[in-house]
Write a structure and sequence with these properties.
Elements: E1 3-7, E2 10-13, E3 18-25, E4 33-39, E5 46-51, E6 61-63, E7 71-76, E8 81-86, E9 95-102, E10 116-117, E11 121-126
Parallel strand pairs: 2-11
Antiparallel strand pairs: 1-3, 3-8, 4-5, 4-9, 5-6, 7-8, 9-10, 9-11
């Protein structure tokens, strides 16, 4: 069966950095767009960013405004893994972070259309 497993969460001070990993199995990883989402206590799930399939000239990325300039998504198809590098973390970044996979032609900034989801990893930023 398909599995997406996030790791790398933890406690970090404001201004610090974390790198989250999402390891995929049971699917042909290279043909899936890989998205990152988060959900803070009492809040709706929100889009963080997504990376598309790797083409000859690289892979496209799309980011939410809150992530733009601070977060970077990458992928390593040989390791079936996508990464979310988070820099200059703020208290309001505190949330459970999820990775998800879809096969749409476009890079969707919403959860709709993502077939598979991981269990999530907690990120806590202290002020």
């Amino acid at each position: 069966q398909v599995q997406l497993v996030e790791s790398g969460g933890g406690l970090v001070q404001a201004g610090g950095s974390l790198r989250l990993s999402c390891a995929a199995s049971g699917l042909t990883f290279r043909i899936y767009n890989m998205g990152w989402f988060r959900q803070a206590p009492g809040k709706e799930r929100e889009f963080v960013g997504v990376i598309g399939v790797t083409m000859w000239n690289g892979a496209r990325t799309v980011y939410a405004d809150a992530a733009k300039g601070r977060f970077t998504i990458s992928r390593d198809n040989a390791k079936n893994t996508t990464y979310l590098q988070m820099n200059s973390l703020k208290f309001e970044d505190t949330a459970v972070y999820y990775c998800a996979a879809n096969r749409d032609w476009t890079l969707r900034p919403v959860g709709t259309g993502y077939q598979y989801w991981g269990q999530g990893t907690q990120v806590t930023v202290s002020s």
